[in-house]
Amino acid sequence: MTARRRGGPPSPSLGALELFESEPPPPRRTESRSASRAARAVPPPPERDTREVREAPRRAVYVEEAVPGATPGSAVSVMALTATARDVLEGAFMPLWVRGEVSDFKAHRNGHWYFCLRGEDAQLKCVAWSRERRRIPAPPDDGMQIVALGRLTVYPARGEMQFSVTRMEAEGDGLWRKALELTRARLQADGLLDPSLKRALPRYPRRIAVITSRDGAALRDIYAVAQRRCPSVEIVLVPAAVQGDSAPESLCFALDQVTRWGDVDLVIIGRGGGAREDLWAFNDERVARALARCPVPTISAVGHEIDMSICDLVADLRAPTPSAAAEAAVPVQSELRERLRMSAETLRALAAERVASARTRAADHSRGLALGAARRVERRRLQLESSGRRLHALSPLATLDRGYAILRTVDGRTVRSVEGLQPGTHVEMVLRDGTAAATVDRVVPNGESTSPRAVAGTES
User: Fold this and answer.
1) Which residue in 179, 320, 400, 432 could disulfide with 137, CB within 3.0 to 4.6 Å?
2) Looking at residue 101, what is its pLDDT?
3) What was the pLDDT predicted at 43?
4) Cα(441)–Cα(421) distance, rounded to whole angstroms?
5) Given this model, what pLDDT does residue 262 score?
6) The dihedral of CA 8, 13, 14, 16: what is its sign?
7) CATH of domain 195-331
8) Cα angle 380, 381, 386; round to 5
9) φ, ψ of residue 280 in degrees (nearest 5)
10) How far apart are CA 342 and CA 337, in angstroms?
11) Is the Cβ–Cβ distance between 299 and 319 less than 8 Å?
12) What is the pLDDT of residues 337-350, one digit of tens each?
């Protein structure tokens, strides 16, 4: 019996154990069995050497000693035994699905998951290596009923049989729903799902970047709708994988390319319909964060109308299909022309209305200015007349009209006090209707007795 892996060469770690048999035949039975097999395979020769017959038991002993582990002298190591058991076990069982209840789940810091699958009367130790976790949407919870795809193997270092899991599904959509809720909670905590962050789409985009598969139907649908609605809008393909293990990294790289380029007005990311596993790349947290970092408005168009992804929640607009995304992004050219025509007519009407209104306002202002100027002139005239009357009341001429006279010296100085007069001083009296020359006869200050004043040499 040769222990080999299914579909491959013998394990190089076995060495001499390539001939190991789990139940080596006892020495005496080996000879008889060998003899019987030889008898069945080749008819006995007509003449047999007696010396050859005597050597047969000795050759059986040599064969027994050559089998590893058949004797104490040919004992095998524990590592060789467990490695051989692993090869036998892996070769005997193809990958298969196993159903059970998760218990004792532990997530190691190196990324591996360790847990048990329990049935009613048995349990099976399981491991999910970190390299296989990308195919599993979320870690299971203790007590969750799951089905796991994997293969039986033996961990040689401990000699324990374990089930190496490559895929895992919970009953219903438990794991997928849990993965979505965990991702959504993390994005919600960072504020990436805040409705106030949603940006308005440009009304008249000049260039639109489409992130999807080069060979998918989504690109053809978007291009056909854009050509039908407005052929002048440029559609730029940024190719990316939209399903499979490499899809999240490919989508993130495409979004980073658009961010570095920057010469686009709008981004559409999506693909056509498919199974849940096919659309799962658009639920990846890395893709959602890269989409949130995009500097221009984004539209997510993943699957059909019933399909909802994390990218749909992060994008500025969620379109049920790629065709609907194109219709939301690209305006209809004929409608645009009609809108422009109506806008031109509206502008002409508004211009004419404003010109007429301006003319009316100008005429009103002109009449108002004329009336205001007339009022100001009349007000100033009245003010001047009032000021003239007040000035005339204060004028010396008005005083002369009341019978008073102004006394001046011959050199024209007004005499305001008797202190500047001496008897015999010649003075001039200014009256309302003329002047008169006079000579001072005497000067009597206030408070002194006076006699009738005599004025000599009066002339008129």
Assistant:
1) 179
2) 85
3) 47
4) 10
5) 85
6) positive
7) 3.40.50.2300
8) 95
9) -70, -25
10) 9
11) yes
12) 888 889 999 999 99
